[in-house]
Write a structure and sequence with these properties.
Strand order of the largest sheet: 2-1-3-12-11-4-5-10-8-9
Keywords: Manganese, Metal-binding, NAD, Oxidoreductase
Helix content: 40-55%
Cofactor: Mn(2+); Mg(2+)
Number of domains: 2
Distance between the termini: 30 Å
Structural class: alpha/beta
Organism: Kibdelosporangium phytohabitans
GO molecular function: metal ion binding; oxidoreductase activity
Protein name: Isocitrate dehydrogenase
């Protein structure tokens, strides 16, 4: 059976980036001889701006938000039940998205590297303020959110296991958790202490401002894990990217890993940038994050070894040649940049010497 990858598309520039993703998947799967079909969700999900344009009252917004969330959740569950291991999603309305992340117990994972240090950021998307439900009464919105020992333990379990895979020759030098735990009556401290004992590791539970101060004053050890509440990590992700001298938001993708057992085999890839509704239909959205995600899926989920490195070389070559979208200081369209990238990958692939066959 031909492997499949899921595709979920939101409003704004979602349709344009979905076309980029489909094209790159098709061309790379042909180059690397790893057939991969794309299973696309039949629903186009709202961005925040499209939702506000379509609905001007709270009840309609809540209804459409819930419909999007339920549909995307079921799409992910269906993919997982069919053995699909990856889904690429363009940006959708955050309120719908976080309902799904809460239900499927998601963490966002990003690895950032600099010459002298490496950071594994594991962002808790399954609990806290970004999750929960809203209640409305005239002039007041009440939002109820939860933290649980079970989910906190699952997130720590995942972070430690992922860190040991990331650094198999000794694991992390430091494990830090950035949460506003002083608001949680001491219970959160106890859960973290129990998890640290279970894994026989030292976990530093710090307030967000303490994490920031230490980053500024001391930097990071060579190998650091930060398990972070959404309230901190959502704001700090871009800052950390800048700190490590890696890509900007517009250039980068991340992984969302689901911890619920029935969907645990499904990894969601997304661009770090948002829906960019103001660019919709102009063929000027930066495709870098999307093409990187497509190459990662080809390599990690379809067996196309070398696709990620080949795409990185192509991105560097094309940028050096001045082929860039306006946000990156260029004058080229999305289509022109993708044309140049795929031509560069194809040129390199065609010029590579054939692999040696045993016995030849």
């Amino acid at each position: 059976m031909t492997p499949a990858v899921g595709l979920a598309v939101g409003r704004g520039t979602g349709a344009e980036l979905a076309a980029v993703f489909q094209r790159v998947i098709d061309e790379l799967s042909g180059m690397y001889d790893v057939p991969l079909t794309v299973a696309r969700s039949p629903r186009v999900y709202h961005s925040y701006h499209s939702l506000r344009a379509e609905a001007d009252d709270t009840e309609t917004i809540r209804k459409l938000t819930d419909e999007d969330a339920r549909h995307y959740e079921e799409f992910c569950r269906k993919l997982a039940s069919q053995g699909v291991s990856a889904v690429f999603r363009t940006a959708i309305n955050a309120q719908s998205l976080y309902l799904v992340r809460q239900r499927l117990r998601a963490v966002k994972v990003d690895v950032m590297t600099a010459p002298d240090s490496s950071l594994l950021l594991v962002r808790d998307e399954a609990q806290g303020f970004y999750t929960g439900e809203n209640q409305h009464r005239p002039g007041v919105i009440s939002r109820t959110a939860e933290f649980t020992e079970e989910i906190t333990g699952e997130i720590i379990d995942y972070a430690i296991a992922r860190a040991r895979r990331q650094w198999p020759d000794g694991g992390p030098d430091q494990v830090v958790m950035a949460y506003k735990f002083h608001l949680l009556d001491g219970a959160f401290d106890d859960w973290v202490r129990a998890a640290a004992t279970r894994h026989d590791v030292r976990i530093g539970l710090w307030q967000p401002d303490t994490v920031n101060r230490n980053l500024i004053q001391h930097g990071l050890p060579k190998r650091t894990v930060i398990v972070a509440s959404n309230e901190w990590a959502d704001i700090m992700h871009v800052v950390l990217l800048d700190r490590f001298g890696t890509q900007r938001q517009e250039d980068r993708y991340t992984e969302n890993v689901h911890l619920r057992p029935d969907v645990s085999g499904l990894v969601e890839y997304q661009t770090v940038h948002g829906s960019a509704d103001d660019l919709a239909g102009r063929d000027t959205v930066n495709p870098s994050a999307t093409v990187r995600a497509a190459a990662a899926i080809i390599e990690r989920h379809a067996g196309g070894a070398g696709a990620m490195a080949a795409m990185e070389r192509a991105l560097a070559a094309v940028a050096a040649g001045g082929v860039r979208t306006p946000d990156a200081g260029g004058r080229h369209s999305t289509t022109a940049v993708v044309d140049a990238l795929l031509a560069e990958v194809s040129r390199e692939h065609d010029s590579s010497p054939p692999a040696l066959v045993a016995g030849s």
